[in-house]
């Protein structure tokens, strides 16, 4: 259930075949429990509360320790559990769980590319998994900054040079290309649409969240945004949409399958009240 329904939109943990070898050695026990909890949310015949209790008990055991385990699997377990309980309606617990995931990620310095290269010990596949984990924490942290939740985007101003994720098919196959830096993407956005490279769907989702976060920050800073700042944001929205490569506007891949990561990227832009109002004016 997890890899069928959840993973295509949030492909940050290891692909199924690779992770199974870790589970067999008990290296990813808490992560496996979190995966089963998420999977139970998609199957009414599974006892969701049972799987939630198991995952929560394992995470509580770790939280109670003087020094939290900081393996990538534990960070991913906290993040998955956070997402699961958030969509089950337990917002307060989701926020506290996300806070643990953020703290552990920062302790491992997943926001630093040099740290990722050191932790992965030259394994490009593991390095890609670490990058995706950092960015997924960043994305969900941003998601929880919706105004009605009164949550501050704690990672928004964190210094970060973590490279961007590659395309998902490359991640699944293990054929990881040389990673691209965020600075390289930002430089590309200043070019004409015809001159820009095509980046991964994950990259456009990340950039959509960066843009959305600036909108939210401005709306919280002043009750009535200045017209000058509104114009700047409108221009950024227009640029984001106009400079998307054709393959990223379609939301389907060449083989006809739905690109769920790109769907979420568009939802970041279209789903927020301010940005949706701007886009209605453009259409």
TrEMBL record:
<dbReference type="GO" id="GO:0006351">
    <property type="term" value="P:DNA-templated transcription"/>
</dbReference>
<dbReference type="GO" id="GO:0003677">
    <property type="term" value="F:DNA binding"/>
</dbReference>
<protein>
    <recommendedName>
        <fullName>Xylanolytic transcriptional activator regulatory domain-containing protein</fullName>
    </recommendedName>
</protein>
<feature type="domain" description="Xylanolytic transcriptional activator regulatory">
    <location>
        <begin position="56"/>
        <end position="174"/>
    </location>
</feature>
<keyword id="KW-0539">Nucleus</keyword>
<dbReference type="GO" id="GO:0008270">
    <property type="term" value="F:zinc ion binding"/>
</dbReference>
<dbReference type="Pfam" id="PF04082">
    <property type="entry name" value="Fungal_trans"/>
</dbReference>
<dbReference type="InterPro" id="IPR007219">
    <property type="entry name" value="XnlR_reg_dom"/>
</dbReference>
């Amino acid at each position: 259930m997890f890899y069928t329904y959840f993973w295509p939109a949030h492909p940050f943990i290891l692909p199924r075949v690779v992770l199974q070898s870790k589970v067999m050695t008990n290296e990813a026990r808490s992560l496996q429990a979190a995966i089963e909890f998420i999977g139970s949310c998609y199957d009414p015949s599974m006892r969701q509360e049972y799987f939630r209790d198991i995952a929560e008990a394992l995470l509580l055991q770790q939280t109670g320790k003087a020094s939290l385990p900081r393996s990538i699997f534990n960070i991913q377990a906290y993040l998955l559990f956070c997402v699961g309980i958030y969509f089950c309606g337990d917002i307060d617990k989701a926020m506290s769980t996300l806070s643990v995931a953020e703290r552990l990620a920062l302790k491992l310095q997943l926001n630093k590319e040099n740290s990722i290269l050191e932790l992965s010990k030259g394994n490009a596949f593991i390095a890609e998994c670490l990058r995706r984990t950092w960015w997924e924490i960043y994305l969900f942290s941003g998601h929880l900054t919706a105004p009605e939740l009164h949550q501050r985007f704690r990672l928004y101003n964190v210094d970060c040079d973590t490279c961007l994720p590659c395309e998902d098919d490359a991640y699944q196959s293990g054929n990881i290309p040389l990673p691209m830096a965020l600075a390289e993407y930002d430089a590309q956005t200043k070019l004409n649409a015809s001159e820009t490279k095509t980046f991964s769907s994950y990259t456009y989702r990340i950039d959509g969240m960066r843009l959305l976060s600036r909108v939210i920050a401005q709306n919280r800073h002043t009750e009535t945004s200045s017209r000058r700042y509104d114009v700047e944001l409108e221009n950024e929205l227009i640029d984001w949409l106009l400079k998307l490569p054709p393959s990223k506007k379609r939301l389907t891949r060449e083989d006809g399958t739905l690109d769920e990561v790109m769907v979420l990227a568009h939802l970041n832009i279209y789903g927020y009240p301010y940005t949706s109002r701007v886009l209605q004016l453009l259409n």
